[in-house]
Amino acid sequence: MKTTPRHKNSDDSILSRYEDIIQSMEQSVASNSENYRAWCVTVVAAILLGAVYNNQLTYTFVAVLPVFLSALMDGYYVALRVILKQYQKSRATPDEWELKDVANELSSAMSRVKILQLDNLAAPAIRRFYSPILVLLVLCQITAFFNGK
Question: Which residues, 6+ apart, have CB-to-CB distance to 123 below 8 Å?
């Protein structure tokens, strides 16, 4: 007995193109996340360098703002990346692909992620990267307090 796949067009090239699109979306999101992390480190390093150079360690609290903003945006991209990976795993076999629903499912899942959603900050990738930066800033504030500057 011959079984037919659930999708209307059984052309494997279409399936591979959709897989390529999802893969490129995931790579783009990962690249954006890496860029936010790089900019965060650059801005915090510049603020710390300026504070140390001018002997004003009390101004290091200004560096918390770019850390927080970068963590929010990075959390957004990490959440999008998780959705893309889950979607890719859930559609592992070609028989499960409904080609007309791919775009609708992805767009509805991705639209549920909000930039200002603080739940994104709880992701382990976010905590592991931004926690040491915040600890460094707190240590700079403690040093400034005890040095009287």
Answer: 75, 78, 79, 82
Residue among 38, 61, 41, 60 nearest 50 (CA): 60
Find out whether 73 and 114 touch, Cβ atoms under 8 Å.
no
Mean pLDDT, the chain, as a whole number?
Answer: 78
How many Cα atoms within 13 Å fall on the side-chain side of residue 15? 17
Q: For 25-41, what is each residue's pLDDT tens digit? A: 888 888 988 998 999 99
Answer for the pair 43, 66: CB distance below 8 angstroms, yes or no. Answer: yes
